[in-house]
Amino acid sequence: MTGTIKQAPPLLDRSDVRVKHETGIGGTVSAFFERVRSGDLGSLPVVVGLAIIWTVFASLNPIFLSSNNLVNLLFDASTVGVISLGIVCVLMVGEIDLSVGSISGFASALVGTLWVNQGWPVALAIVAAVAVGGLFGCLYALLFNRLGMPSFVSTLAGLLAVLGMQLYVLGSTGSINLPYGSPVVNFGQLLVMPHYVSYTLAAIPGIVMLVTGFRTIARRRAANLSAPSAGSIIVRAVAITLVLELIVFYLNQDRGIPWMFGLFVGLVMTMSYALTRTKWGRSMTAVGGNREAARRAGINVRRIYTSAFVLCSMLAAFGGVLAAARLASASQQAGTGDVNLNAIAAAVIGGTSLFGGRGSAYSALLGIVVIQSIANGLTLLDLSSSLRYMITGAVLAIAVIVDSLARQSRVSHGRA
Amino acid sequence: MTDISDGAVPSGELVLSLRGVSKNFGAVSALTDIDLDVHAGEVVALVGDNGAGKSTLVKILAGVHQPTSGTVTFRGAPVTLSNPSTALNLGIATVFQDLALCENLDVVANIFLGRELNPLKLDETAMEVKAWTLLNELSARIPSVRIPIASLSGGQRQTVAIARSLLLEPKLILLDEPTAALGVAQTAEVLNLIERVRDRGLGVVMISHNMEDVRAVADRIVVLRLGRNNGVFYPDASNQELVGAITGAADNSVSRRAGRRQAQSDITQEGQI
């Protein structure tokens, strides 16, 4: 009968004898290979892809892997990376925003006009630009929630309309130069972390991993649940600390880690926490996976969609401000061309599903490093942009193929 | 056939009372003038043929659809079930026929969906413990609560959906075809569970096509036909009466088939004599 358990099992989640559980460090490693075999690739394809791309470019042009070039790469990656982080948000709920490029361009134009031409304080101008970005998100959410307009169409319309606004704001001059030497432009072009700061920051993830890991073990043991072994947590924390410190050491041979990249990584980590450890993030995943089920579970689905659209637009606007700082100008070209597709491609290459309900904030970080590596490497090789587009397109296609093959494998292995 | 009003009055307080509830989908009247009472500590079975409006009625009670007209009274007060969370907050839990689970989330996340503990820093350990407690109460056979729903079988998913409905300590549970996807043992477990829920003083509304299950647990059997009330029965009612009310005629394919088989066996017996 159901009421009593005949013999108290040692652990609450280990009472089913049919399931094999891996334990210890060896178990962690073999569980990882098992996961990969069944198609739950995680970020493995990106890491492998990145290794291939870097090997190819480094063999063609040794400058590619120089500290100096990689620091430049990080500066460039941060701007589109922030936009891509917003794309991750809308992709999580299974929607899309095609207007992020235009919104970023409009935001940079706004900052240029308000700050340089109208004389607003720069901080206020940036806040205003990001807030205006948020308004576009509200509008998309309204069209989607109330009128049932597919986000693909509404944001496509937004792409054109917002580009028009950008051209209107910039007027006949076509571009506004941001003053060199101002804090914003310095932040976008020059400011790097002092070495001790970057070494300290690189140690933090490992420490956090250790602390939360041991706290989780204690709590799960107290609750009579199985817990990961202390050894595996230590190994992982040490490994991640070593890798990060090595990267920092290498980049510190040149200028060091850009503050702008630090800001981007900070945003990524905040977003990752919000998506995986809060009720809001849970709701986002649920809405992306099964909208009707989420609604019946009492989730306010409309509010979740609104939050996704608004966050995406605000991050796009903020990315536009960073891009303006990077280029020290707000021009008619800002946010046009490949910005849009690079931001979307980065999220997808990083492993966020186009169909919703599956993704991670880190995919923006990994994906944009891949995209920027290709752009940077091809520029170093002095190849025309025609080839750059073709190669980026091919990489995107490969990423989606890997994703759909992995999805088929997951389905046949009984994983989501 | 008996009318709703002259049934034996169950002991518990009146939890839910519907009066004259109708629901139109465009030109189609899915429900017309439905009356339904559910008391505390009572299992009401809702039976009817396909298209009788059972699932529509459940969706109205769950806040998924809104009635076109009529009143819903819950625990003595008239209520408007404008959306699913209103119904959940009032204490009406629903297990839908399509289960309404998110396949990309794991078992714990599905059980606590919309009700997560500690919203800004999810308390995964406490949620996992509570999930195991609920599942063990149901004698569920779930290999792990940390695997996505996509990798569970139909019966396992059903158990997860039922476990989820119990999370909020509801006053009324609606079960839409709770045993349709289950094996023999699991069906018995769910029927046991329904009885335990009733004994805890909750009202239960259960939709089922399986007359055996209905008769086994129901205190009253409410028949719907073409979106209207078509009688209230008690578990001692004969199969023929029930089928007659469901199909709307004493002379129907089920009774004709039964009659034919009876005649067949009479002939065989005569032959043996």
What portion of residues of chain A is helical? over 70%
What's the assembly state of these chains?
heterodimer
**Strand percent estimate of chain B:** 15-25%
Count of DSSP strands of chain B: 10
For the termini of chain A, the CA-CA separation is 32 Å
Instruction: Please tell me what the overall shape of chain A is.
Output: globular
Q: What structural class do helix, strand and pairing data of chain B support?
A: alpha/beta
Mean pLDDT of chain A: 89
- The CATH homologous superfamily of the largest domain in chain B is named P-loop containing nucleotide triphosphate hydrolases
Tell me which CATH architecture of chain A applies here.
Orthogonal Bundle
Ends apart, CA distance between termini of chain B = 39 Å
Q: Strand share of the residues of chain A?
A: under 5%
Give me the CATH fold name of the largest domain in chain B: Rossmann fold
Main sheet: strands, sense, barrel of chain A: 2 strands, antiparallel
Number of helices of chain A: 16
**What's the CATH architecture of the largest domain in chain B?**
3-Layer(aba) Sandwich
- Quick one: biggest sheet of chain B? 6 strands, mixed
